[in-house]
Amino acid sequence: MDWDRLRVFHAVVEAGSFTKAGRKLKLSQSAVSRQISALEKTLKISLFYRHARGLVLTEQGEAFFKAVQEMSNRLSLALATLNESKEQPEGPLRITTTVTFGSAWLTSRINEFHLKFPDISVSLLLTDEPELDLTTRDADVAIRFARQTRPELIERKLLTIRYHVFASKAYLKKHGAPKTPADLDQHALIVYGSDVVGPFENMNWLLAAGASPGHKRKPALRVTSVYGIYRAVKSGLGIAALPYYLSEESPELVHILPELSGPDMEAYFVYPDALRYSKRVAVIRDFLLQQAEVEQAAHPD
User: Fold this and answer.
1) CA nearest 259: which of 181, 188, 186?
2) Which of 11, 70, 201, 250 has the least CB density, counted as fewest CB within 10 Å?
């Protein structure tokens, strides 16, 4: 099997045409076409349906592409492993987590990590859904908020995230601060959208906390993301439960009703077993665990 032809085939599938693949590979369209034809002749199958609008993989082509993709992933992993044999950790490191946690907690700590390990090039892949697959190298490591069930993934508890009640200084100046949880009956509350599936049950616990018997609180606003709730609270719209790491983003927020706290949420550092001995993974894991320890000491409750 000619490995160059496999590389060309992989590029054609990803590009969707000989012309686009040729531009990526710096080959002419005819050269790419010849490589694919030669590969099909070797395999004695048709890999693509060719039509005016582009290329579509045949059933055999799809099966062959999965095999080539797996080979490509294994090669990438092998090269990464070889790179780890160097004394100083270096190379790319892709970290994935949610948009809010990555933007508010993780990004503020990357500067210190970069100063310690300048030869590691960090990329943050922030997404709420779907989660990137670590086993296919969509990312190298992840920070996630639920226990992992796949045996090929390794997890370490990173930190416990606690929710407390916050309002902006502007809101409190205008409406006054609730002195007891029952006083929330008279205030504007901001909560998650009813269809949001969160990391713990009863995401909207604030609607019931200390509520008067028979009184059903109606929120002033429902939002589908914790960052959206944070922005609404910061604007002065109302009161909400927020994780402490978001409250640190704005001096305008005031912690109220300290006797009230919501369910805890656990954050986990996750990486594939294939990277168990990676120096890059080890140093980012140890660095974030140290950062989390400092954070937990500052916010014990």
Assistant:
1) 181
2) 201
- Strands 91-97 and 221-223 turn out to be unpaired
Is residue 148 a contact partner of residue 135, using CB atoms and an 8 Å limit? no
Closest among 142, 113, 114, 91 to 287, alpha carbons compared? 113
Q: Cis (ω within 30 of 0) for the bond into 130?
A: yes
Q: Please, what are the domains in the chain?
A: 3-83 (1.10.10.10), 91-161+266-298 (3.40.190.10), 163-263 (3.40.190.10)
Q: What are the structure tokens assigned to 278, written together?
A: 């990676």
Q: Is 34 helix (H, G, I), strand (E, B) or coil?
A: helix
| pLDDT tens per residue across span 235-245 | 999 999 998 88
Q: What is the pTM of this model?
A: 0.68
Please state, in angstroms and rounded to a whole number, the distance separating the CA atoms of residues 143 and 154: 12
The strand pair at 91-97 and 120-126 is best described as: parallel
Q: How far apart are CA 113 and CA 287, in angstroms?
A: 7
